[in-house]
Specification:
The chain is of the alpha/beta class. It has ten helices and twelve strands. It has helices at about 5-15, 40-55, 70-85, 100-105, 135-145, 165-175, 195-210, 220-235, 250-255, 265-285, and strands at about 30-35, 60-65, 85-90, 110-115, 125-130, 150-160, 185-190, 215-220, 240-245, 260-265, 290-295, 300.
């Protein structure tokens, strides 16, 4: 079997495995909604919002969970092309690894809208809808600076290497802190791959090697919650920890004073906007008013919890 036959066979098998109705109504469009990993609450929320908007737009949805595997997400795209979906809305696990599959979709004439993670190397993507993660990282770092006007010793937990948001949030944090390094020293900086359990062990290692920091800046809430657990185990409850994503669990921790803040990037609005753009083009070739739609993140603290997109899900 040659490579092309293998890919077609894999795609055909993947098509059977995608979470989609076996028979679509003939008068309805079908779109693929693909997220990197439903093991992360952030992406569960994102896919739920994609589903809700697809239903509101009257289109069928084929659901794809990348399962934290670029190979799996690639196979899901290829399967969707075999199914002849009318559009693709995708948050790619790795912006580089997914580029060939997205390019294949574009060449096949299937409109692609990316969300959350932007793929810059592929021509012809219909639009990107996301948050300005550089500004989000800057806002997170500025909130920490405001809390420590006299300077601070900082741990920085970075996101998954190769993921666009991780790259941009890291850039934003350093944009703020690097010019202030005489007062604000990052004494420990390491990836925890957006994962809570890994953040727990990474923070424990950082505490053992460097002692107690004043603040921990994290590239997502799962890592912030892991860092919080590590600090609590040592009774370091006064360490100010900042997350990113405004998950309901993080919002509760902010409300209760266990986290200092979290960055809201409005993933639901990202998802719904992306679906609207994709469906409009698939229906009648309506071009989006903007090819790049970036929402501005804000830091959520105790004083503005009502601004959080998912505050209604907190208990």
């Amino acid at each position: 079997m040659n490579r092309r036959e293998f890919l077609l066979s894999s795609a055909a098998f993947g098509a059977m495995m995608l979470a989609a109705p076996s028979v679509f109504a003939e008068d309805k469009l079908t779109i693929l909604g693909s997220v990197p990993n439903l093991g992360f609450p952030f992406f569960v929320h994102m896919l739920n919002e994609i589903k809700a908007e697809a239903a509101a737009q009257g289109v069928n949805l084929t659901e794809s969970d990348g399962q934290n595997s670029a190979t799996k997400q690639t196979a899901d795209i290829e399967a969707a092309l075999v199914q002849k979906v009318n559009a693709i809305v995708i948050s790619p696990l790795d912006v580089n690894a997914l580029a060939p599959a997205i390019e294949e979709a574009v060449k096949a004439g299937v409109p692609v809208v990316t969300i959350d993670r932007r793929v810059d190397g592929v021509e012809g993507i219909l639009a990107h809808v996301g948050a300005d993660n550089v500004k989000g990282g800057e806002a997170e770092a500025n909130a920490m600076v405001a809390a420590f006007p006299n300077g601070a010793k900082i741990f920085h937990l970075q996101g998954q290497p190769g993921a666009g948001p991780a790259i941009d949030r890291n850039k934003g944090v350093h944009n703020v802190l690097d010019p202030l390094k005489d007062k604000y020293q990052i004494v420990f900086e390491q990836t925890a791959n957006f994962a809570r359990a890994e953040a727990l062990s990474v923070t424990e290692a950082g505490l053992a090697a460097n002692g107690k920091p004043d603040a921990i800046v994290c590239a997502n809430d799962d890592m912030a919650l892991g860092a919080m657990e590590a600090c609590a185990a040592r009774n370091f409850t006064d360490v100010k920890i900042y997350g990113f994503d405004a998950l309901p669990e993080a919002l509760v921790a902010v409300r209760d004073g266990k986290l200092a803040g979290t960055v809201e990037q409005f993933p639901g609005e990202q998802s719904r906007t992306a679906v609207r753009i994709a469906v409009a083009f698939a229906k009648d070739k309506t071009e989006p008013k903007e090819k790049l739609v970036l929402l501005t993140p804000i830091v959520i603290g105790k004083d503005n919890l009502d601004k959080a997109e998912r505050i209604g899900e907190t208990k």
